[in-house]
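Deviation from plan, reported transparently: fe (ii) ion complex.
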Amino acid sequence: MRSESLQNFLDAAQSAFATRVQNPHATASLSRIFAALETHGTPSDALGSRLPPCVHLEQAANPQNFPDPTLHRLIETFQTLESDLQWWPRKGDWTNAGPGFGDNHANAMIVGPGGAERRSDVWIGASLVAPNIRYPDHDHPPEETYLVLSPGQFMQGLDNWFEPGIGGTLYNPPGILHAMHSGDAPLFAFWALWAEPHPA
Ligand SMILES: [Fe+2]
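Because the crystal trials were delayed, the predicted structure below was used instead.
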């Protein structure tokens, strides 16, 4: 069964995404995602594990840095859950990754393949990137909504880089090329992907 810490995080994520997202495609995607999450997946029995770049969580995921109550709650529930998560380097290709990328980022799947709750329909996770590191260009079939919790730049398609800011969001349509780049602070963001076909 789903742990209380995971359910609390998912409840906080639902309200944080809902209050921040404006793009109608993202809103529709998030309603599909959180409706699907009412059905529980399979809890993972793997132990949580960190990578060296997780040291940046101390700054990037410090609840004291989030005065907004919705984001504060999200970060608090994430911190309670974090010891159950497995952090990994990116598994896909590293096209246009910046120097030092390999040792200076970590991703955690919260629900989804390899996540604390195993399932294939919804992927929700976090990315943490050490200061002054460019994340690779990548794309994937599932649509994706980011909720950004730190400074840092994002790129979609061939558009210019932009900074959503703390509490900012962006929606990646299926297959769009995207990337991110930290500045002098660590970059920290949650993402939520709908990995099933849209209902007709
Ligand atoms: Fe992505």
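Strands lie at 42-43, 87-88, 105-111, 117-118, 122-129, 143-148, 153-156, 169-172, 178-181, 187-194. We consider this an acceptable substitute for the interim report.
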